[in-house]
Amino acid sequence: MSTFADTSVATHATYEPVIGLEVHVQLLTATKIFCSCSTRFGAPPNTNVCPVCLGMPGALPVLNRKAVEFATLAAMALNCRINETSIFARKNYFYPDLPKGYQISQYDKPLAEHGSIEVHASDGKRKIGITRVHLEEDAGKSLHEGFPDASEKTAIDLNRTGVPLIEIVSEPDITTPDEAYEYLTRLKEIILYTRVSDCNMEEGSLRCDANVSVRPRGQRELGTKTEIKNVNSFRFIREALIYEISRQVEVVESGGKITQETRLYNSHEGKTYSMRSKEQAHDYRYFPEPDLLPLLVDEKWQAEITKTLPELPEALRARLVKEYGITEYDAQVLTVSKSLADQFESAAKAAKNPKRVANLVQGELMGRLKTKGLEIEQSPISMKGVATSADLVESGAISGKMLKDLYDLCFERNKDFPEIYDEEGRPQQSSDTTALEKIIDEIVAANPKQLEQYRAGKKTMIGFFVGQVMKASKGQANPPLVNELLTKKLD
User: Global pTM?
Assistant: First the structure.
């Protein structure tokens, strides 16, 4: 990790970081933003292209309506004000993977502004402002081969050129790397709930650049910022910020000046490195895109899009706590994805005790899924199966031990709980007092040494006898009844 890590706590007592994040989210449309080329990931290089996304002379862009609807939906979910009129602009810069020599984006009149996300900070909940959400097209991709050898070659794949993006720009309200991590986690969660993107970081569907500066605590004026680009995980973004903050503090304290630049993060070394000087907005020479009319998202269209807005994570958690009597922690775990939340609620509605369903999902189901490396959608036990098993335990028909054994069989045979329960002959927990007393008599008679220890005052030995009775009954004895009968017998 960082060579500055040991001094970071001390130096941060004097200096405070100011962090802003720029997140690019690929919209889940079938076609590109200004043409009908496919957005499918993984196609052979330069096959999902046409004269429009290749920037051929005379080819004109036509705006994708679905991209606008997805962008507006995301902005609404982020509490933004939707601007009825927004303007596309040309952002001029020259990279090999930008065939037109400019990117169609939005500048001074974006689609949406003034949003916020609530995050859990060390001092409680606080809101991180969102400056803007705007639409733009993606650039292509440079593929470097042979680096760092002298034989390095660069190839260009333009399949990604023209893929629709939204850029979500935060206010510089983030004060720690942990807050940045929390903000990104909440942002991704909200976007996934809206289903406007799959947020797959490995495929580039979600990318983040971090702007960071430091200043003496209490100073209002911002310090010179650097931008950290191309970080491919939230964990690495947090690590990069930790390093970069400490680096900047050391530079300032040694009398140096921070250079406004773009830096890359090397996750193997835990360090950032200078990539290039950072452009200012005027360097891009923005001007209105002459081939596109102003984008009008009027009240009627906004109302139609609002109808598709789903129940968002925070509201859903509050409702689950209220309606099903589960804890806030339960709700947090059970809403990590919309799919899991929907399945839990379906099971909770069908079960006698929703809290027991929540416990089984977290304690029995999720643990087995994690061990097997499976997602909830791949679980052999459906939420209906969880509800069935919860009711059986609730009624006393099966014990917790029997449930664990049946769940193990479900995963071994890749079958749902009701099917396994039937295959095993619908086992029932035994509450037959006469039969249990007979088993207890046999166990006590066979273990005189343990009986002597118990009667000599070692009352914990009752656990030994309970275990032996449960084993003899093949796990089908009613544990509370066994405890009661054993206590009477042993005493």
Answer: 0.80
